[in-house]
Amino acid sequence: MSECRSCLPGELHYRVTAGTGANENVMQEILPFMRAAGVIAKEEEGMVTVRESGMADFIDFCRDHMDTSRMTFQLDGEGEQRPFEALAPLLDARWIDSIVFEGRVVPYCQPILDREGKLFAHEILSRFAREDGTLAPPGEVFRAAKARGRLFALDRVCRMSAVKCAELPGKVFINFIPTSIYAPEHCLRSTVALAGELGIDPSRFVFEVVETEYVEDLNHLKRILDYYRQRGFQYALDDVGEGFSTVEMLRELRPHYMKLDMGYVRGVADDPQKQEVALKMLAAARETGAVPLAEGVEAPEDYDWLRQAGFELFQGYLFGKPAPVAKEQG
């Protein structure tokens, strides 16, 4: 199966704008040397696109001989202009590329229980191995991937790794970032194909929408969810609460599962305001046909309150912390 450049991106290119006539004159003087070194991908008036392999030396030269405060750059293919001084952190974050390209994703799982305390599903949580074998914090990994334009590729690697965990008992909840998916019919077909190759019933997978608050194009998200639904997969809306995931959002997306934000779960037994939000979202879930799930359950009294209120599924440290998926299961 062929993959697009976003799925398996290669070396980054940096489109650097001189910003001033003096800077442009200096840039013109060094172009012959850069051509000979093979680090130029493209030349335009007042700007040059440099391959990442040549960026470290280019940055040092510019700092010594040019007014970098007037210079800007953008990653090739992106529209955002960034200050020149933001280049160095991008180079420092190159470690994320090996995690993506080598697929150094370590799947963890956390159980999800039903009202009777029986195992219903596992959520697959991605952790990431550095070259020395230690785990990098997920937040740090995703920030680096976003900065370097690797978010799509990282999200795909995580999804593919999670699908391979389907030998775990029960359903498998898999996180995905909708803003990293350009066109579901192209970007998600490898995930769907892998499930087919493994001979797994699509209904066992629940794709969990994260970072919904950053989705500006709701119709695009609907296309993604429709793509999954039409192929027999299910989906969940994560972190539902008073903020971005309002009752209207539930009505618009009509997820199979609604996960109440842990901020409204922890301490709910003793907090009337949290109880009000929990009951409101519970009613919205029932109205839209979504199964209500409370995540982040840590205290028995919160579990008892949520269970009596009518929540049907539960996840949290009270039932089990995330743990590595056994190799024979991955």
TrEMBL record:
Residues 88-330 form the EAL domain. SUPFAM superfamilies: EAL domain-like. PANTHER family: CYCLIC DI-GMP PHOSPHODIESTERASE PDEF (PTHR33121), SIGNALING PROTEIN YKOW (PTHR33121:SF70). This is EAL domain-containing protein. It comes from Paenibacillus xanthanilyticus.
